[in-house]
Amino acid sequence: xxxxxxxxxxxxxxxxxxxxxxxxxxxxxxxxxxxxxxxxxxxxxxxxxxxxxxxxxxxxxxxxxxxxxxxxxxxxxxxxxxxxxxxxxxxxxxxxxxxxxxxxxxxxxxxxxxxxxxxxxxxxxxxxxxxxxxxxxxxxxxxxxxxxxxxxxxxxxxxxxxxxxxxxxxxxxxxxxxxxxxxxxxxxxxxxxxxxxxxxxxxxxxxxxxxxxxxxxxxxxxxxxxxxxxxxxxxxxxx
Length: 239
Fold this sequence. Notes:
The protein is of the alpha/beta class. It is built from nine helices and eleven strands.
């Protein structure tokens, strides 16, 4: 999913009124595709993958639990967040859903605001898992996010920059937002979160990163009256 696309929700529900209610609850923050059966769901998934699936238990050609089990068994779909939306309040149905890998279970009738909040929470968690597995390369650097490591990929490739956790988060934030100027307070939030440290801490960590970047074709430059930004030297010199 690109940054300009809306997240895509696949709604598997045979009741048209319920599908309409779900679509209205999730729009316009999400795009919604509707399927009313297992067969329609399989046809859609053969060509596209959604960002989240909202699944009913009672369908004309399958049980929602069966669909969830199939999703979990397929490497293409096993990481998709599944939320059950069902009229059943039976504990056995809820336990079955969670045992099959569902991330949430919502009873009908549902509150639209609650559904939006739960879907958003699962999308955020799912994106966090994808980000953690990411390997990202830019300007002679390779970031291995899950390991919190950064390596050179130029002529000196394979060398670990030996970054501290806060140095890694700071450099990764810079690299993900090339040429964007950030204030010290914004960089504190990106790398330290809610931990209280002074803005001088950013200056010290930027100085350490500059030394560790060495001859790489990128740099962290000061922006007067703002803070810092990250630029690639090749991209910069071509302008």
